[in-house]
Amino acid sequence: MRPIKHNDTTNYTIEEATQLLPFLLQTLTNKSRNAVKSILTRGQVAVDGQTITQHNHPLNPGQVVSIISNQTSLKLSAFSGINILHEDDAIIVINKDIGVLSMSADGPNEVTAYQQLMDYVKKDNPNNRIYIVHRLDRDTSGVMVYAKTEEAKLTLQKNWHKMVKERTYTALVEGEVEKDEGSISSWLTENAAMKMYSSPYDNGGKFAVTHYKKIAGNKNYSLLEVELDSGRKNQIRVHMQDIGHPIARDKKYGAETNPIKRLGLHASTLAFTHPTTGKLVRYTAKVPNSFYKHVKG
Hints:
- Among the domains are: 1-69, Roll (Structural Genomics Hypothetical 15.5 Kd Protein In mrcA-pckA Intergenic Region, Chain A); 166-267, Pseudouridine synthase (2-Layer Sandwich).
- The protein has helices at 20-27, 33-41, 70-76, 113-122, 150-158, 160-163, 235-242, 290-293, and strands at residues 4-6, 9-13, 18-19, 45-47, 50-51, 58-59, 64-68, 82-87, 91-96, 131-132, 141-147, 164-174, 181-190, 196-199, 206-217, 221-228, 265-273, 280-284.
- The chain is an alpha+beta fold.
């Protein structure tokens, strides 16, 4: 097996089925068993672009294992509230925590995901830049993609609805959702107070469609998998209010409870056509465990 080195990452294509830790021990022969385990624990290993820390993660022929260098790992550990799921010459995909702004800050000392990534890429070259592709609300966690070139940004932004093949959120909502699945459609408009309003008829707003499937639930809360046909501001939050099941802690859109001490909305999956390779890529961010606690039977 011939490793391929790209910048500070070494890629290995799996030739026969095995597990991650045995593969790393066999491959990184210059390191002790404890050192290899530490590389895993620090999140320096990815399988097909997804960071993996489990020792027994199965590997199949054709999968690509990527190992980032210790030096790059140290740079990544300086992040606050974000971690990188994938990086190449055209894009950076991150998992954003709640409380972190995607771009603009409310104050001069507030750290944003955008600024952290900009500082990160400039460490390699002062001329490097990061470009905004889309946004997540401050109180929404999960998968986001930024572009590393203006060309990649324009390609993604101009063709976003065609290139995005899956955009899935996980939502913890108040009450017991009776239907196992459903769709919500309406026109959304924003008032002067920056609150979105939903209308069943065309009132000059933007048309939005939201699909949901119930994963689990009880009389108090339901856990939904939500997919968007469109990506409007606060779309999921407004549409959950429309069906009488506002997102937990979303007081702005009708919620009365705060069971997990955060907004119950997480961007769990983003799949899209890569702007330069043309291949379909898919990234996931694990749903916080707190989302599951309140929907047990």
